[in-house]
Write a structure and sequence with these properties.
Elements (H helix, E strand, L loop, with lengths): L3 H15 L4 E6 L7 E3 L6 H5 L4 E7 L2 E6 L3 E6 L2 E6 L11 E5 L4 E6 L3 E7 L6 H8 L10 H10 L6 H6 L9 H11 L12 H20 L37 E5 L2 E5 L8
Parallel strand pairs: 2-9
Antiparallel strand pairs: 1-7, 3-4, 4-5, 5-9, 6-8, 7-8, 10-11
Helix pairs in contact: 1-7, 6-7
């Protein structure tokens, strides 16, 4: 799933690789996906995009923006995978959208569980989740201070857990269940810990882990559980993921626990991440 480290990585790669390329053809889904959400009718996307040149790109929260000529913005979000192919590469059999460029390279968008593929003429973007992402201060920014973080606690209900604080309702756009696992482990906080009971020291650890873990993930081109624009896995080695949770805790050697919680799996060390 697209989370902030991958969003930043892919938007940079789009600028570096696709900037200046003109879309010559658009192909709609070869295999319709009921949980691919489009803005308007995707069958009309060709009229909006063919002939347009990609100028730049930027990432916000869980969205990657593609800025095109004639004041058009395209963006992808959440569960969309974007993969760039060089001229002559084999075209995948299944996709939700394909853009062909004037140098015969092409860009393929696919969706696994669910995702957004949107095209907005005149930059008239009416997606509420995008608005939240665009208007929020990124935790990677210097402007995201402890005071900004404290606002989350001030607005939190007494029953809110640490995972819910970080990974639900887009309180921190671009931070989802995937990156939350390592953020909480590095802060030594249990996913089910009620944030109301966190000490000031624990809040400080959580803030520092949020910024530090996300920065490391971003600096290394995303997580090893996700792929970039070229199909390469990120260089950040996830501590806790579906691929690693059966390994012993890297800090104390205890057995890692896996539980279903709040619509997804959580992984934690029962020794290093005790509930208080």
């Amino acid at each position: 799933m697209l989370e902030l480290p991958e969003v930043i990585t892919i938007s940079r790669q789009v600028r570096d690789t696709l900037g200046g390329k003109t879309i010559t053809q658009l192909f709609n889904a070869t295999k319709p996906h009921r949980f691919t959400f489009y803005n308007g009718d995707p069958m009309q996307y060709g009229k909006l995009l063919v002939g347009k040149t990609i100028l730049s790109s930027k990432g916000y929260g869980m969205f990657v923006d593609f800025y095109l000529s004639d004041n058009i913005t395209m963006n992808i979000g959440d569960g969309v995978s974007a993969r760039y192919y060089n001229p002559g590469n084999k075209i995948p059999a299944n996709y939700q959208l394909l853009l062909a460029f004037d140098d015969d390279s092409f860009l393929v968008f696919t969706v696994a569980m669910y995702g957004f593929i949107n095209v907005y003429p005149d930059n008239n973007i009416d997606n509420k989740y995008y608005k939240i992402s665009r208007e929020s201060i990124s935790p990677l920014s210097e402007e995201y201070t402890p005071n900004q973080f404290d606002k989350l606690f001030a607005e939190a209900k007494n029953t809110l857990s640490a995972k819910a604080l970080l990974a639900t309702e887009q309180r921190i756009p671009g931070v989802g269940n995937g990156v939350t696992q390592d953020i909480l482990f590095n802060a030594q906080i249990h996913p089910k810990q009620k944030v109301f009971n966190l000490s000031e020291n624990q809040k400080e650890r959580l803030f520092n882990s949020l910024k530090g873990t996300l920065q490391e993930m971003t600096d290394k081109g995303g997580r090893d559980t996700q792929t970039d624009l070229y199909g390469n896995n990120g260089r950040y080695n996830s501590i806790f993921s579906a691929k690693t949770w059966k390994n012993p805790c890297p800090r104390c050697g205890d057995t890692i626990m896996k539980e279903a919680y709040l619509g997804g799996s959580v992984y934690y060390c029962p020794t290093c991440q005790r509930i208080v």
